[in-house]
Amino acid sequence: MKVPEESSVTPSVPEELLRKWEARGVSRRDFIKYCTAVTATLALPATMMPRIAQALEDTRVPVIWVEFQGCSGDTEALLRANQPTVAEIILDHLSVEYHETIMAAAGHQAEAAKEQAIEKYKGKYIAVVEGSIPRGEGGAFCTIAGQSALEIARKVCGNAAATIAVGNCATFGGIPAAAPNPTDAISVREAVPGATIINIPGCPLNADNLTATIVHFLTFGRLPATDRLDRPLFAFGKRIHDNCERRSHFDAGQYAEAFGDPGHRKGHCLYKLGCKGPETFHNCPTVRYNEGTSWPVMAGHGCIGCSEPAFWDTMSPFYRRLPQVPGFGVEATADKIGLGLVAATALAFGAHGVASAFRKGDAMESDKVVKED
Amino acid sequence: MTKKIVVDPITRIEGHLRIEVQVEGGKIVNAWSSSTAFRGIETILKGRDPRDAHHFTQRFCGVCTTVHSLASIRAVEDALGIQIPDNARLIRNLIMASQSVQDHVIHFYHLHALDWVDITSALKADPAKTAQLAQSLSPWPQSSAAYFRSVKERIAAFAGTGRLGPFQNAYWGHSAYRLPPEANLMAVAHYLEALEWQKDIIKIHAILGAKNPHPQTFLVGGMSIPVDPDSQNALNADKIALIGKLLKKARLFVEQVYIPDLLAVASFYKDWAGIGGGVGNFLTYGDFAMDNGGGTDNLYFPRGVILGKDLSNVMAMDQAKIAEYVTHSWYSYSKGDKQGLHPWEGETSHNYTGPKPPYQHLNTDEKYSWVKAPRYLDQPMEVGPLARMVIAYAKGHKEVRETVDFVLKKLGVGPEALFSTLGRTAARGIETLLLAQKGEVWLQQLADNMGRGILEVHNGEKWDPATWPKEASGFGYHEAPRGALGHWIRIDEKRQIANFQAVVPSTWNAGPRDAMGQMGPYEAALIGTPMVDPEKPLEILRTIHSFDPCLACAVHVLDGRGTEIIRVKAL
User: Fold this and answer.
1) Is B162 on the interface with A (CB under 8 A)?
2) What is the pLDDT of residue A359?
3) Is there a contact between B6 and B36 (Cβ–Cβ < 8 Å)?
């Protein structure tokens, strides 16, 4: 992501604010850089930056972070958040009342902290949920302090100002809900239908998208605009294929045919090696991971579609190419792929049988792509 | 009087762990380790493309990310007889080593340190004396009085808000905390530094594998990151230089911050060298291949088994001697729950017989955990850094011997001190140091290969399933940060996964009792642990955290896709 030179925006942030952050050990440069980057991630005009800076100054918003059937990958992603000082800003700005992986207290002291926070900040805190929620065995597939994930989710999300579901498990059921879904795992949306929820999928999510969503909420008092899967448009409004750094090779019909072949080494399109970029809505190519270091296509591996519902079933086998994506014609491609996506989404919560039918339509064996290189 | 204490959730770990203990006369006399979450990923794997397995298994755990990818891929490569190119071996070594180094540092500072370090005491520290202390321990440049004053002011400002966030309700002021204020302040400063450091050095994974957590670069047969000095889309001289810079940064922090802190903190808690020993049996699969022969004889960390703390007898490891029990786990076997089954023969259906949530207590006489109980020669085994260091030490590994002896001498304790909570925590630091120093060597070898025009990273001979035998089975091993990790796979005539099983480090360590009633390593290690205040289970956390629990990957079930899963309704 492009970060504008600080000189062009510095004057618009009040001096007093910058001094306060400096006193907390955050340099003005880092603070400005952070605010600017968040503004850019949110696809807001640069003139909004001072307002974001102001929002960060207000009281620390309480956060209750709960993990159910997850792998802590989203927690780890948060630890790698994208700006130099984001760890400090999050620590200084949010008040993390409960997060099992980082909190000092354990057992009933930990649970008491959660209960107190729900009571004290009722309707005012942000709930973050990581991991899916199992309904099987009366909830015994995931319990914390003897309570089922479902009970905890209802209470924590039901009393929150807003809930942010992070990662594919919390947003769409993820890997536990992959066929045959042995634990009857569901998403937060399904578990707590009435709650105000925003979904930030990814496996794991990109932490930049989480911090940007939180800052948006702090700045405007509401969640950002979303698509019909409750995903923020600033991060999930475009297909990976639309912004891919290798798109020109796709349009030119230049493909890597095998891992390690000359085309692969030269950065040709990975579509034939199974890339799911044409059906996946995510901002990976522009935001990238680990402070903008890289993302799957850049490392020579196709996208596996991890921000889409039921991708474990609809996008696999991962090394088989997508069905019937024409090799030429940008517009036609986008349209047809768009249709494919609708189909995939319709399958999202459906039976595995449907997913298998989807696989049968795969055009891998009859090579329909015109190769020209 | 016997008092039963439940600690649920155990925090500062990955996953969901519950510990129940009985305390008598101020000491733990009985203990039960229970995992309270289950996902069933092995069931989900059945019928899928074996080349996809690593994407699924990587999601066993987001903390020890990469490790399950690697074990799965090795299982498939073992089944199909695939030899990976030398560049792939080196890239895998680099990914594994940086994973261990980063993960161990996070464990020490962010998951374990608060068991020994009292943050509130740091507020009483004199910054000038803290600087003296820090400078006497290490040449690390960030050690001025002004620096420690700024850290102290920052904590004071944070505490002054009255909202302690993740640090509220903890055990501050507990009499078991023994560091002077200055040592506490130094440790808190390094807690914050490590938070910054970890996200920087893990960029090695992003360069080699797209992102972290969950890199996307492993392939059956090698790696997907291309190597080509003449391409900007591949691992080239620029990227090698960047990795080199990050490896150096990683090593310097370990040498100048982590190890000095570990030694300083340990010197105040030497009594913990006599607590938390546990089962005294150790198992390693070994890892970090030093040549590309594909064998297991030339591994940087060797393979082996030690029983009863007998360092004079390192036995050869034979994976056929592993069996898993479900006597006290929420699964059942068709031929009865008293016998153990080898992973390739593993057949399980989940069978929840515990209390219906919400509940207060588990019935620990019956089944009480989602983790199975793996055994080697019917013995419970500890796996992890301590097992690796003990086995390498017993085998006469030069660097391990030197470093272990240095640490023991520095602390003024003998080798028997290794078998303890403190020993476990120290062993983790020792191996971090060795791996941090090795990374630059492997990177140089990779650069040398590139210089000689060796660019192969993937062996695609058996990429096409049509080239596979009708049936195949394989064992994939890895020494993950938390210990010996094994994946077993069976591939059927449809070239699909017929059976998949993972026996992971936390299954070994966190498992419940077996058919013979033998405790698992966590349980055994807790016996005899003193407890000053049963309401504040600080001592339980010390011993449990010394294993670095990571539970998400430890719970699994095997069953055929489409076969009926037995469900037992809990009342």
Assistant:
1) no
2) 35
3) no
Residue A88 is predicted with a pLDDT of 55
Q: If we measure between CA atoms, which residue out of B431, B435, B436 comes closest to residue B387? A: B431
For residues A102-111, b (16+ Cβ closer than 10 Å) or e, as one string? bbbbbbbbbb
What is the structure's pLDDT at A103? Answer: 85
Cα distance between residue B543 and residue B251, in whole Å: 27
Give the pLDDT confidence of A254-275 residue by residue, as tens digits: 999 999 999 999 999 999 999 9
Q: A343 vs A192, A308, A320, B514, CA distance in Å?
A: 26, 12, 18, 48
Most confident of A20-29, A55-64, A279-288: A279-288
Chain B partners within 8 Å of A170 (Cβ): none
User: Where do we find the tokens 């007093």?
Assistant: A16
* Cα torsion angle, B154, B160, B164, B169, sign: positive
Inter-chain residue contact A182 with B44, CB threshold 8 Å: yes
Q: Which of residues 124-163 of A touch B (CB under 8 A)?
A: 134, 136-148, 151
Per-residue pLDDT at A11: 43
Region A238-242: mean pLDDT is: 96
**Side-chain half-sphere of A263: how many Cα atoms within 13 Å?**
20
- Name the active-site residue from B89, B143, B329, B550: B550
> pLDDT class for A57, splitting at 50, 70, 90?
low
Provide the H-helix boundaries in chain A.
Answer: 15-23, 28-41, 49-57, 73-79, 86-93, 107-120, 149-158, 167-172, 188-191, 207-220, 233-236, 240-243, 247-251, 262-265, 284-287, 311-314, 330-347, 352-360
CB distance B44–A24 less than 8 Å? no
Among A239-253, A315-329, B190-204, B535-549, whose mean pLDDT is lowest? A315-329
Residue B538: closest CA among B177, B265, B167: B177
Q: Which class for B268: exposed (0-12), middle (13-18), buried (19 or more C-beta within 10 A)? A: middle
Q: Is the per-residue pLDDT at A49 higher than 50?
A: yes
Pairwise CA distance, residues B369 & B352, whole Å: 9
Chain B residue whose CA is closest to A274? B52
Q: Is B141 buried (19+), middle (13-18) or exposed (0-12) by CB count in 10 A?
A: exposed
| A94-99 and A147-148 strand pairing | unpaired
CA B145 to chain centre: 36
Strand, helix or coil for residue B299: strand
For residue A52, pLDDT over 90 is answered with no
Candidates A233, A98, A80; CA nearest to A152 is A98
Please give the Cα distance from B312 to B80 (Å, whole number): 37
- Burial class from Cβ neighbours inside 10 Å (0-12, 13-18, 19+) for residue B45 reads buried
Question: A218-257: buried (b, 16+ CB within 10 Å) or exposed (e) per residue?
Answer: bbeeebbebeebbbbebbbbebbbbebebbebbeeebbbe
Of B81, B213, B111, B100, nearest in space to B478 by CA: B100
Which of B290, B204, B288, B209 is closest to B241 using CA atoms? B204
Q: What is the percent of chain A where pLDDT is above 90?
A: 56
pLDDT < 70 stretches in chain B: 1, 347-348, 552-571
What is the C-alpha separation between B298 and B306, in angstroms, rounded?
19
Tokens read off for B532? 């000053």
Phi, psi of B530 (to 5 degrees): -75, 150
The pLDDT tens digits for B531-560 are 988 888 899 999 999 999 987 666 543 222
Residue B298, chain A, CB below 8 Å: the answer is: no
- C-beta atoms of A294 and B202 within 8 A: no
Q: Is the ipTM of this complex over 0.85?
A: yes
Across A288-300, average pLDDT: 96
Predicted local confidence at residue A83, as pLDDT: 57
pLDDT at B165: 82
Query: Rounded to the nearest 5°, which phi and psi values hold at A228?
Result: -75, -5
